[in-house]
Amino acid sequence: MVKSLDENICTGCQICVDVCAEDVLRFDKDRGKAHIAYPEDCIGCGACAWFCPQKCIEVSMDRTRPEVMAY
What is the value of pTM for the model shown? Predict the structure, then answer.
């Protein structure tokens, strides 16, 4: 799960928003920063943290949430 996103470090590059397959992260145009919009939808893949050039995202690899399998 996305644990935190440090908006003080975020430069607004939107890479995390682009790589998030679950649409958890959104870009706030008014502030020019990414933010965690739907934390409950995060599957903990870590793509946002991996690709963030500023390393301002922390993801918890807590696997207590059941995984939804495709049909």
Answer: 0.79
